[in-house]
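Need residues for this backbone.
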């Protein structure tokens, strides 16, 4: 059998998993979801789902992936003769293509904004003017469609040549840089006139805002942001080495991921209130606000270009991880060449992504259950498919998988009493807390 590729260094493991987790989910999706669902209350519930439910389920995906060294479908086949569990693999494949489709539309927006930044937003700097520019771009059909296809094409080139290693190396530099410039923008935002109001909105939870819908959205956000519930982390951890500490990797990944989302919130909300905008503006929120923020900074063109370029690269390391789910499946299970597998994956996303791109223009009136295709793909994948996948994975590892495998994978070699306690808590969360919490949210949120 061919020996499976492995991540070379521990930093490589962290950089790629964080590269998958950190992306538009943190900087674009978190602020607009928090803005639409009560700010602080949303953040609080999101944190609960990330650390109490998410981290254990991340560990569960890591256990499955590293133990079997296999793709989503192959992993379950290797672990259980019961075919029903294999459905988790198919659900993951389906969810990955759905997410890749709408995600590429927004990644395409970041490419447009790199271009716009270089051209100084056509000399427009008023808040209204910049909003108008976003609207006329997003509703124009051809440009968003073109960027979506261009973004997916870049993914194709990288994936089919198997040059993700280059991206991995690049993320080692880009991610810390992204981090540094987020901090610069935070400092800029907290000196804005309505900073206090923005920060209160984000950090002081108003419990009267909590409703089943808010809880469902916060749970979806936690899963989306951690790249969790669709087997992405099963696929990535199949490349982990035996001595990669799973629990620690899960903890570091969740913490950095959360930090980036919170920093994005600290940048956005003071500006939202300073410019008198509506926090519940939806998917366009961040793209309307950011240029207004930059236009008030010295060297605005440089900051703006750099930021959208880094956001584009962060999106790329996330979409590569989404595609890898399908590509590993098609090459391992169906013996396809990497090139053919990539074409199938990317071509499907181009068709579906193209339709999502038009959701803001010509297909704006085409709705299913009151949602445009773009919103529907986002809602169904994040709020339903990923949590269902996460629940199934936690039940599988908590109840079905041999306990000795779970303990062996989770326990580091020279294990202290504290790490034993941590391992026991993760197992407890997988057996009881995660499945029960997710089930309750569904019962209350969807009925
Ligand atoms: N976690 C990524 C982000 O926050 C999105 C993602 C979802 C990546 C699912 C892979 C799988 O942008």
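Answer:
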């Amino acid at each position: 059998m061919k020996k499976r590729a492995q991540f070379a260094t521990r930093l490589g493991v962290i950089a790629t998993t964080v590269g998958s987790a950190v992306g538009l989910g943190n900087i674009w999706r978190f602020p607009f979801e928090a803005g639409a669902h009560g700010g602080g209350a949303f953040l609080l519930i999101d944190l609960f789902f990330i650390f109490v439910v998410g981290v254990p389920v991340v560990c569960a995906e890591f256990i499955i992936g590293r133990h079997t060294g296999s793709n989503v479908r192959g992993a379950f086949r290797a672990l259980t003769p019961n075919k029903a569990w294999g459905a988790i693999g198919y659900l993951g494949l389906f969810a990955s293509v759905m997410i890749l489709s709408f995600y590429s539309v927004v990644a395409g927006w970041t490419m447009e904004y790199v271009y716009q930044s270089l051209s100084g937003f056509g000399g427009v700097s008023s808040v209204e003017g910049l909003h108008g520019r976003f609207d006329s771009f997003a509703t124009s059909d051809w440009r968003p469609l073109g960027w979506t296809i261009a973004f997916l094409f870049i993914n194709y080139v990288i994936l089919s040549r198997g040059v993700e290693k280059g991206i991995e190396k690049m993320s080692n530099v880009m991610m810390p840089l992204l981090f540094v410039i987020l901090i610069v923008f935070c400092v800029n935002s907290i000196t804005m006139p309505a900073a206090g109001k923005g920060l209160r909105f984000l950090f002081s939870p108003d419990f009267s805002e909590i409703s089943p819908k808010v809880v469902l959205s916060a749970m979806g956000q936690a899963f989306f942001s951690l790249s969790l519930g669709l087997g992405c982390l099963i696929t990535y951890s199949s490349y982990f080495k035996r001595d990669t500490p799973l629990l620690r990797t899960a903890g570091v990944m969740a913490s950095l991921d959360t930090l980036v989302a919170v920093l994005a919130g600290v940048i956005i909300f003071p500006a939202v209130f300073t410019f008198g905008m509506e926090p519940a503006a939806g998917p366009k929120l961040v793209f309307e606000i950011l240029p207004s923020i930059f236009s008030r900074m010295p060297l605005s063109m440089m900051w703006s270009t750099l930021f959208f370029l880094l956001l584009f690269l962060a999106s790329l390391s996330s979409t590569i991880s989404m595609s890898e789910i399908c590509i590993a499946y098609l090459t391992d299970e169906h013996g396809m060449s990497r090139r053919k597998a990539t074409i199938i994956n990317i071509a499907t996303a181009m068709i579906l992504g193209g339709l999502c791109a038009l959701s803001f223009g010509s297909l704006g009136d085409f709705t299913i259950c009151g949602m445009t295709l773009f919103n529907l793909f986002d809602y169904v994948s994040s709020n339903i498919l990923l949590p269902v996948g996460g629940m199934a994975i936690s039940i599988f590892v908590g109840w079905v998988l041999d306990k000795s495998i779970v303990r062996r994978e989770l326990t580091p070699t020279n294990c202290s009493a504290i790490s034993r306690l941590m391992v026991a808590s993760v197992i407890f969360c997988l057996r009881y807390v995660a499945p029960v919490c997710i089930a309750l949210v569904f019962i209350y949120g969807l009925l």
